Amino acid sequence: MAANAVHHPFAAIGNAGDVFEIADGIRWVRMPLPFALNHINLWLLRDGEGWTVVDTGIARPEVQAHWRRVLEEAGEGRPVHRTIVTHFHPDHLGNAGWFSETYGTDLWITHEEWLMGRLLAIDATEATEEATVDFYRRCDVEPENIFELKNRGAEYNKMVTSIPRRFRRMYEGDRIDIDGFEWEVITGFGHAPEHACLYCEERRLLLSGDQILPRITPFVGVHPMEPEANPLARFLDSLTKFRRLHRETLVLPAHELPFTGVLDRIEVMREHHEERLEVLHRACARPMTARAGVDVLFRRELDAQNLRLATNETLSHLNMLIARGEMERAVRGDGVWEFGSR
Ligand SMILES: [Zn+2]
Q1: How confident is the model at residue 305 (pLDDT cuts 50, 70, 90)?
Q2: How far is the CA of 278 from the centre of ligand 1 (A)?
Q3: pLDDT value at position 150?
Q4: Any idea which of 82-91, 236-245, 301-310 has the lowest mean pLDDT?
Q5: Category of 38 on φ-ψ map: left (φ > 0), alpha (ψ -120 to 50) or beta
Q6: What is the mean pLDDT of residues 15-19?
Q7: Any idea where the domains of the chain sit in the sequence?
Q8: pLDDT tens digit string along 201-218?
Q9: 72 Cβ partners below 8 Å, 6+ apart?
């Protein structure tokens, strides 16, 4: 068992637009989120005469009001040159359009994350809804927990401002100069299609987005648009890229607190998923649906939304077992998938 030697050198700073300078020219901004996970960490990096902002928060008037104040006070009224967005999730990409329109900033993002955000913002058709409902039916999720998906329209759009139509593309291995320091783009997969982390070896800092968090394991799920996907393998694979980081690296994650101990944290995350794979493999000695698999992995009451997310996560483990040749998927007469260990 890897020891979880995660340390938090800084205490929490509150959620409502509070700012703390974590290193010279690097400011930690906490913003509220309207979820169980009630905050996100965003970053203000000094960049010559202005700032580079890393991730932007969810599109809500109160978050934009906090940003205005943060830029005026902690940002000393200097301009924002660019926003770097780690991935398309609305708590990260949410205000990128607002930044572009308000401050004329450029959006820096990977190609897949930009495409995904743009796609979700326009793809709110009935056919998409039907495909989603069909997916959860095949997982055997109860009709009452699927029902509310009907006529919800574009959920994503409610959490993002118009996503810029023009962007600067970040590639794996790119080195971005921010205030004379080189930040290397390291992409991660599984949580999002092409999630960008930024690593400054010289300063031993990693902006990890949602790819590496200190306590929660990042969500890795199978989605309705790609039911046979194996995102967990991609996620674990991409984690190995971070093994070369300096042992003393201070990780600046999008949720929870900054931490050191990233190499141990990676091993703990890997073990966590291996354990879950084993538990599911054992449980599926008697074939079961994805919904029954949720009860095996998550032994607690879940509301409809969390149940669907748990189903996505359970499927990511089932599909990884299939890819390893340790699980088989059959289709029942009613179209529901059934998973049995081999
Ligand atoms: Zn995310």
Answers
A1: confident
A2: 26
A3: 62
A4: 301-310
A5: alpha
A6: 91
A7: 18-285
A8: 999 999 999 999 999 999
A9: none
As a whole number of Å, the CA-based R_g of the chain is 21
CATH 3.60.15.10 fits 18-285, yes or no: yes
| Helical pair 290-297 and 304-323, crossing angle rounded to 10 deg | 100
User: Ligand 1 centre and the CA of 204: distance in Å?
Assistant: 23
Cα–Cα distance measured from residue 221 to residue 8, given in angstroms and rounded to the nearest whole number: 28
Distance, CA of 210 to CA of 289 (rounded, Å): 29
- Alpha carbon of 89 to ligand 1 centroid (Å): 5
Instruction: Give the Å distance between the CA of 331 and the centre of ligand 1.
Output: 31
Rounded to whole angstroms, the Cα distance separating 259 from 155 reads 33
For residue 218, the CA-to-ligand 1 centroid distance in Å is: 8
CA of 38 to the centre of ligand 1 (A): 14
Q: What φ, ψ does residue 90 adopt, rounded to 5°?
A: -65, -25
Handedness of CA 159, 163, 167, 169 (dihedral sign): positive
pTM greater than the 0.90 cutoff? yes
Structure tokens at 21: 């300078």
Scanning the structure block, which residue is given the tokens 């290397």? 184
Tell me how far the alpha carbon of residue 163 lies from the centroid of ligand 1, in angstroms.
Answer: 17
pLDDT in tens, 235-258: 999 999 999 999 999 999 999 999
